[in-house]
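User: Can you predict the 3D structure for this chain?
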Amino acid sequence: MKKYPIYEIRNFKCSSFQENIYINKISNHITEHGFINQPHGHVFYLIMLFNAGTGKHWIDFQEYPVKKGSFFIIQPGQIHHWELSKEVDGYIIFITKEIYNLYFQSKKIQNYPLFVSSSNISFLDIEKDDMISLEYLMELILKEYILDSNTKRDKIINLIDCILIDMSVLASDGNYIINPYNLKLNMFYELVEKNFVIEKKASFYAKELNITPKHLNRICKSLLNKTASHIITERIILEAKRLLIDRKLSISNITEQLGFFEMTHFAKFFKKHTVLTATEFRLQYYQNSINI
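Assistant: Here is the predicted structure, written as structure tokens:
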């Protein structure tokens, strides 16, 4: 049973030139796709820049402000929804990992500092000077997307890459470096993403990474001030919350989907790490949420 909608680019009114890239003005995007008001996820990367309007944007249960200069990057698998004023506008871009990594064979989009899990930036507040150059790039991308040109793919992907570089510099306060610990940590996160339902012990991941559990903890502590076990727990709790927002799923069903053998075990685990019972979290979410 699906816990929330997961969309591909082809689910949107995209250009016929390919289903790996989509660009639009935010106002048009919202008007053309009413179904995006509900919490949902994507299989692609989403980039948004707001230049008008106000509101709130929730990404994996974290609330962010929407205003002029609000810049968002949402990774595949994250869920989000928003509450926006009628006058919102700006730019929205979808790009798949496959098209980016195929085009730039010497680097991968998931290894950008923005996406390496030690930083995992979802929101940036863009200042006036940076806003001018960022809007200029966004407008160039939109114009290329509309044109019928043999070079449009090359131009668009390279312009998107310029945005990722500029935003990585801003997110790292000018210290644009990918160090070995960050890359190893990202590998750990990728393994957790694939295996957390079945494998919940840090020793499994250390073995997969060909390092000792002590060294894995050293990496996690030095970059995040967290243990490897804590990171695994965070991922399980996040998935539990994602499942709990689907009212059709029973607590028993969620327990099974998360790989717990007993509902009482899951109940104790969830309350220990959130202070709320699973039922209390679900009730609180819908009481505080926006027309879901």
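The mean pLDDT is 89. The domain at 180-288 is CATH 1.10.10.60 (Arc Repressor Mutant, subunit A).
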